[in-house]
Amino acid sequence: MSDREPQSALAAAIDQNKRNERVTRAWLLAPALAIILAISILPLGITVVYSFLTPGTYGGVTWEFSTDSYVQFLFQRDIFDDTLVFNSAYVSIFLRSIGLALGATLGALILGFPTAYFIATKPREQRNIWLFLITLPFWTNLLIRTYAMLLIIRDEGIINIMLMKAGIISSPLTILYTDTAVFIGLIYSFLPFMVLPIYASLEKLDFSLVEAGYDLYANRLKVLFHVIVPLAKPGIVAGCILVFIPGLGAYITPELLGGGKKLMIGNMIAMQFGASRNWPFGSAAALILMALVIVVLLVNALAARRGASNNG
Amino acid sequence: MAEPMTAMPASPQPRQRRRLVRDLKAMPGFTATAWLCIVTLYLPILVLIAFSFNENRSVVLWTGFSLDWYAKALENDGIRNAAWVSVKVALFATVISTIAATMAALATTRTKPFIGQGLVYGIINQPLMIPEIVTAIATLSLFALVKKLTGLNGIGYLMLAHAAFCIPFAYMPIRARLETMTLTLEQAAADLYAPPLKVFTLVTLPLLGPGIVAGAMLAFVVSLDDVIITLMIAGPGETTLPIYILGAIRRGITPEINAVSTILVAVSVLLVMLLFIVQRRMQR
Amino acid sequence: MTGTEIARDRKAAVSARALSKTFGQGDYAITALDSVELDILENEFFTLLGPSGCGKTTLLRLIAGFELPTQGSISLQGQDITDKPPHRRPINTVFQNYALFPHMTVAENIGFGLRMLGKPTAEIKQTTERMLALVQLEAMAGRRTDQLSGGQQQRVALARALAPAPKVLLLDEPLAALDLKLRKNMQLELKSLQAETGITFVFVTHDQEEALTMSDRIAVMKSGKILQIGTPRDIYDRPTHRFVADFIGDINILEGTVEHTDGDLATVRLKDGSMVSAHLGPASARSGDVSVAIRPENVRLASAGETPTLTGVLENIVYFGAATNLHLRLGTGEEIVIRNPGAVDEGRYQPGATIGAILQPELIRVLE
Ligand SMILES: Nc1ncnc2c1ncn2[C@@H]1O[C@H](COP(=O)(O)OP(=O)(O)O)[C@@H](O)[C@H]1O
Ligand SMILES: [Mg+2]
Predict the structure, then answer these.
(1) Each residue of A241-256: pLDDT tens digit?
(2) B151 in C contact zone (CB under 8 Å)
(3) A298 CB burial (10 A radius; 0-12, 13-18, 19+)
(4) Helices and strands (H and E) in chain B: how many
(5) Nearest bound ligand to CA C31?
(6) Chain A residues within 8 A of C173 when measuring between CB atoms
(7) Same domain, A197 and A107
(8) C23 CB less than 6 Å from ligand 1?
(9) Which atom of ligand 1 is nearest to the CA of C31?
(10) Is the confidence at residue B280, as pLDDT, over 90?
(11) Atom of ligand 1 nearest to the CA of C52
């Protein structure tokens, strides 16, 4: 075997090359991973620990194991005899949040789908302008946008003024600080998240399928629901998730438009780290919120897998 | 019957005004909905901007044009300090996150696929997947612990937190750019005896430039606009502009808030427009 | 009109009158169809043939109702359908890219039209099964369409369009994406399907051979106009236009002058002075300078002792199995090709030799 020598030299060179590449890659990834692991992921571990501790008197925690934070969700400890009494306050905040987020998702879908379709059927140059218009608000400050919404739906806001001038109503509609305001605010905040993924899937739609639908005796509505909507499903699902998740964890919208009276989970969590100071309970609430989000993502991933395996 | 001389045309005369285009793509009400969305998205902001130029103190009645509220806002020490904090934090976060994201993007596109690539993507995008309020209180808990253990204080914490959540935003356009860039140019350079580092500085980096600029601009805008994480972890004297605005809104609505808000919106919009132009260039 | 006289007793399935379609406006206007007159008869296999961009698809889309004409009208079995939307026309289309619904199974695709028509489930099921059997895809009923081969997708598209039993089936280059062997098979299958179902087929192709083998009648199109309508034999043996003659098969074209006419026969003096008698088309010039055409297979080598119609110098011999082409250069500079069945005696037919050719008089045409 005379050629054994050069072969192994080549193999060694390739090995060396691979090792070099691995080292280079590790160095390149190090800063990003280190920052995110240390500042975003490690804290989640701390949150888990904190949720099993006892609240400190002035915020923070005392290092004493306790499951009270989780018990507190459902029950209230009677001060005198230490028995547990069912308490619906926190559960109802969660349910309210889920309800509002679902409602906003549906609202955004009803507005967002036609918009995405409209854009996808425009000539290419016009599409870019429309997409820019839809994306731009996403890059402007959410706090300021919410504040702007507050300005126009107030009792003295221009919506009420215009409605009154038009003689449609005689006294201002009270929208601000109601569930309706939060609902409107959530749609307004996250509408672009609905439009963009739906647009992305409609843009790929082969419009000869639409023609085939008409050719096979479907009218406009039937073409919409039997051809277009099913084909846009991946975009619709993505859009719904992208609206539901930030909607569920919303903080600014209920804070400003709900006036701090109509709480959602996000505000409740923040409060535990502020005025009411129960860090372990806040940590537990945050983890439950995260668990909800993970459940939604998992269900979606599983459904997507099932869809893929049905195809394959 | 009266004019038998002119031969009857074989077909009926084309009707005078008929529709010439059949738009099978159009759906009833969709156009109106699209316009409704645009109005909903823009009307509030436009009203806010309009009233920032109102001469009156009222945010209800228009009385006349003036720049008074901008003057007032710029004279306000609280606003000036907050603006300075915002810029400092955003610049720091932009530099750190863009460098880290560029390196990570090179690692995930310019080396062979590797085991754990999915995990790396997951970690980098993690800040996008978890509700911001959760990240906010978790980071607060960590920082509280570190502060207690080391006794160190300062704005560094806020800067680091911003850098962390800016990384995925900076990463997206840089990775996208790297993925559309072909390897041929780099290979050509290597073929012409350029050593790897020269290939990188002379070929990869200049081509990647627009991607990096886009990533940095996104990171800057995202940092500048952050409310929840900053609200949770900013210490005294570390009030950023959005936090200042939030506090001001809670105290009561004034045209001054509109003026500051308009400035902040204008900065974001300008940056995003620049970004669009850069990306247009990139596509060419 | 041309070609309609063949079957005047049969009714027209689709008629187009003065049908025009212009895309765009002003300087950018493109006239895709220009005053088309057309009668497609019941139960016929009708082919639109022409080069790419001549307006075949546009004509089909107007019949299907996907586009509105700029001028003129379309009727189906005598009823004006010009303004009817596609879902109210009992006409179905087999799309060039098949346009199968990717989110439905093969069976769901085939049943779609009937479902939209609101037919009872049992009937849909029954018809779907019948259609699956017709295109021999029973085993594929539950598959997704992207799991099928090109030929199978083609059949699904066909079955889907046939399932609602349309009055007219439109097929836009349905075989273009298939490889040669499959295409040949599908040509035969399509033809027999048409005969079996008795549905009027309007078939679009740019492949002249395909058109000749499959069609009952062919309309040859050029730049938005129909040049000639007729049976494959009409089109092949009696082309009325130089374009038609050229587009379908090989043809020899010679210049000449009409000396006199007698009925539909003309005596033409060719440029080299020889006289031939040629058939006049309905719109051919009856005097002056004309072009006459003859297929290479209708020109033969003059045998010893025969008086040739034309003589020329042999330039090229191209042998291709079933026949040999001999390229002759005439004294006038014109070229003429003789297609000789089988091989020729290579000793006698050498390049440079002077050779006589005989044109079969009954197969010479005066072009329009
Ligand atoms: N939607 C359209 N807009 C503009 N021009 C078109 C459109 N459809 C077809 N055309 C033009 O009309 C002419 C005929 O096209 P088509 O009917 O598709 O030809 P064919 O099917 O014979 O290849 C072409 O010049 C084509 O560019
Ligand atoms: Mg075509």
Answers:
(1) 999 999 999 999 999 9
(2) no
(3) exposed
(4) 12, 0
(5) 1
(6) none
(7) yes
(8) yes
(9) 12
(10) no
(11) 23
Task: Please tell me the number of Cα atoms within 13 Å of A2 on its side-chain side.
Answer: 0
**What is the complex's ipTM, to 2 decimals?**
0.88
Distance C34 CA to ligand 2 centre (A): 16
pLDDT attached to residue B7: 40
Claim to verify: residue A20 and residue A98 sit in the same structural domain = no
C55 C-beta closer than 6 A to ligand 1: yes
Question: Residue ranges per domain, chain C?
Answer: 2-242, 250-366
What's the token pair of residue C86? Answer: 């596609």
List chain A residues with CB under 8 Å of C65.
214
**Nearest residue to C109 (alpha-carbon basis) of C146, C76, C149, C79:** C146
Task: Name which of A3-7, A104-108, B154-158 the model is least confident about.
Answer: A3-7
* Nearest chain A residue (CA) to B197: A24
**For residue C67, which residues of chain B lie inside 8 Å, CB to CB?**
21-22
B188 shares contact with chain A (CB less than 8 Å): no
Residues of B in contact with A24 (CB under 8 A): 107, 111
Cα–Cα distance for residue pair B82/A311, rounded to 1 Å: 55
pLDDT above 80: residue A42: yes
Q: How are beta strands A61-62 and C12-23 bridged, if at all?
A: unpaired
Phi, psi of A17 (to 5 degrees): -60, -45
Contact (Cβ atoms closer than 8 angstroms) between residue C106 and residue C54: no
Q: How many residues does chain C have?
A: 368
Cβ–ligand 1 distance for C54 under 6 Å, the answer yes
Q: Would you say domain C250-366 falls under CATH 2.40.50.140?
A: yes
Per residue in A75-125, pLDDT (tens digit) is 887 777 778 888 888 999 999 999 999 999 999 999 999 999 999 999 988
CATH class of B68-283: mainly alpha
| Mutation probe of ligand 1 site: the residue of C30, C93, C202, C223 with most atoms within 8 A of C-beta | C30
Question: C237: which residues sit within 8 A by CB, 6+ positions away?
Answer: C295, C363
- The pTM of the full predicted model, rounded to 2 decimals, is 0.87
- Among the atoms of ligand 1, which is closest to the Cα of residue C59? 17
Cβ separation C70–B20 shorter than 8 A: yes
**Cross-chain residue pair B130–A43, CB shorter than 8 Å:** no
Q: How far apart are CA C53 and CA A88, in angstroms?
A: 72
If you average pLDDT over residues B189-197, what whole number do you get? 74
- Give domain C2-242's CATH superfamily: P-loop containing nucleotide triphosphate hydrolases (3.40.50.300)
